[in-house]
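Support request, please re-run this one:
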Amino acid sequence: MTVSRGARAGALAGVALLTVAVALVVANRLQHAKGTSTGPWYSAFAAPYTPSTGPAKTACGRVIGPKTIGVAHPVLPCGAKLYIQFDGKHAIARVIDRGRAVPGHTFDLTPALARELGLQGTQSIRWRFAR
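Re-run finished. Output below.
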């Protein structure tokens, strides 16, 4: 059985096209799995905070425990997913509370998030929305 040159070239082109399509799908899934960021970077001041004592719920309905990763912000919607960078470290966190009206910073970080980033006191962070 002989296969014409044109048929062979067409089959190889089809295999190549299928390979590229699969590679794009895999790359897209890996990117989403890592929680990639979108949009421009913003700068803001952030500080760690201690939620009120006792099992009180946040303004977003969450109870903050010692391992809770999250931020409080006065305007961003509850559940918004953010990519946060500080001093070469990064983390993904959700808005889980409303920020207090404390002059000098925009974000309040849960103690667990502040530890993860190595943030103490009021510091400048970079943030942007994550997918």
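The chain has a mean pLDDT of 81. The chain has two domains: 1-34, 42-129.
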